[in-house]
Specification:
It contains twelve helices and 13 strands. By secondary structure, it is α/β, with parallel strands linked by helices. It has two domains: 110 residues, Aspartate Aminotransferase, domain 1, CATH 3.90.1150.10; 243 residues, 3-Layer(aba) Sandwich (Aspartate Aminotransferase, domain 2), CATH 3.40.640.10. The strands form three sheets. It has a seven-stranded mixed sheet, with helices on both faces. A four-stranded antiparallel sheet has the order 9-10-13-12, with helices on one face. Strands 1-11 form a two-stranded parallel ribbon. Strand 5, helix 6 and strand 6 form a beta-alpha-beta unit. It is globular, with a radius of gyration of 21 Å. 44% of the residues are buried.
């Protein structure tokens, strides 16, 4: 694999040592071109072909299906992962005494939305590890990889627990999909949400979510609009009666979509598939392993091994101050909860890590 040629797709890397994909992924040139092409097409056609844009979106759903191993009709688009989570939790029927289980140190999305159900008598339980589920657990919320310390829970095992007890499983894959492989058919979450602006290298507003056919039968949409009816393509004479809800995941979209961002996302995902998700994962873990070795040699301890988000902690150094000093040298990492977080993607190289090593020397 010619990683140097692939790196040429990322012009920002000419001026920055970007080791912070867990905050933002860099846009490939081809992704920006796809967005520009959509706007040029609007000028050429005056948007007379807008219905064909939905055909293009359906093709992008199919690309996502290839990436995470699901059917294209299981994929819907939304603006961000918080919107997907709100759909999941607020579309359920809750009863006093129901419980939601998540992990400690999770991304705040999971806490804030779940805690908003307290006035209905729903209890949020935070666990260090999910090895069993308490009685009356109705939903489990987990991230594939923790944003601040790199912890990777056994999501497949948690899925088995949830299904055995009749709970629904929501998985946030924002911090891994695009770097690590995820097999939806094997894990069997009820919902998987991925905000594409990090590891999938997409523009903002290109979030997709997988929603299982069984959940689609019971989960209420949070947005009802003209596309909530099966006849929405008949724009000359839209249905005027009570809606006839589509069976596919698109029924949760309601109306128009963020087409520019979705076109860009499609191009980034094509790039991932062309490289090969297995090659991407191998390269990302290889670079992360190098970063972990550099951080250990600088005196840090690594919070979690075998992951692509490397969180380092020094007993006598302030992570926020280190991150600020590195930024002065255009080396971008992040500080999260006392840890220095280094998150390389496949577009990084050994020279980037050597600059980090030299900058960390006393």
């Amino acid at each position: 694999m010619n990683w140097s040629a692939i790196r040429d797709q990322f012009p920002a890397l000419e001026n920055w040592t970007w080791l912070n994909t867990a905050t933002y992924g860099q846009l490939p040139v081809r992704t920006r071109t796809a967005v520009d092409r959509h706007f040029a097409r609007r000028d050429e056609t005056a948007c007379t072909d807008f219905l064909t844009w939905f055909d293009d979106v359906d093709a992008i759903r199919a690309l996502i299906g290839q990436l995470i191993n699901c059917q294209s009709e299981d994929i819907a688009f939304t603006m961000n992962a918080a919107s997907a989570l709100s759909l999941f939790l607020l579309g359920m029927d809750w009863h006093e005494g129901d419980r939601i289980v998540t992990l400690r140190d999770e991304f705040p999305n999971q806490y804030y939305c779940a805690a908003s159900l307290a006035d209905q008598g729903v209890e949020l339980i935070r666990m260090n590890e999910i090895n069993s589920l308490p009685e009356r657990t109705r939903a489990v919320l987990v991230s594939t990889v923790n944003y601040s310390n790199g912890y990777r829970p056994d999501v497949a095992f948690i899925s088995q627990l949830a299904r055995r007890t009749g709970a629904l499983l929501y998985v946030d894959g924002t911090q891994s999909v695009g770097a690590l492989r995820f097999d939806t058919a094997a894990v069997k979450p009820h919902m998987l949400a991925v905000d594409g602006y990090k590891w999938l290298l997409c523009p903002n507003g290109a979030t997709f979510f997988y929603i299982s056919p069984e959940l689609r039968r019971t989960l209420r949409p949070s947005v009802i609009g003209w596309r909530s009816d099966t006849g929405w393509r008949s724009v000359d004479e839209l249905h005027q009666g009570s809606r006839r809800m589509p069976e596919a995941a698109e029924k949760y979209e309601g109306g128009m979509l963020n087409f520019p961002s979705i076109y860009g996302a499609g191009e980034s995902i094509r790039m991932m598939l062309e490289i090969g998700p297995d090659r991407v994962e191998q390269r990302v873990l290889e670079l992360a392993g190098m970063a972990a070795d550099i951080l250990r040699r600088s005196g840090a301890s690594i919070m979690n091994d075998q992951t692509h988000i490397v969180a380092a902690h020094w007993p006598d150094r302030d992570a926020s101050e280190i991150a600020k000093k590195l930024q002065e040298q255009r080396i971008i990492v992040a500080a999260r909860h006392g840890n220095l977080r280094v998150s390389p993607h496949f577009y990084n190289n050994e020279e980037d890590l050597e600059r980090l090593r030299l900058a960390l020397m006393p």
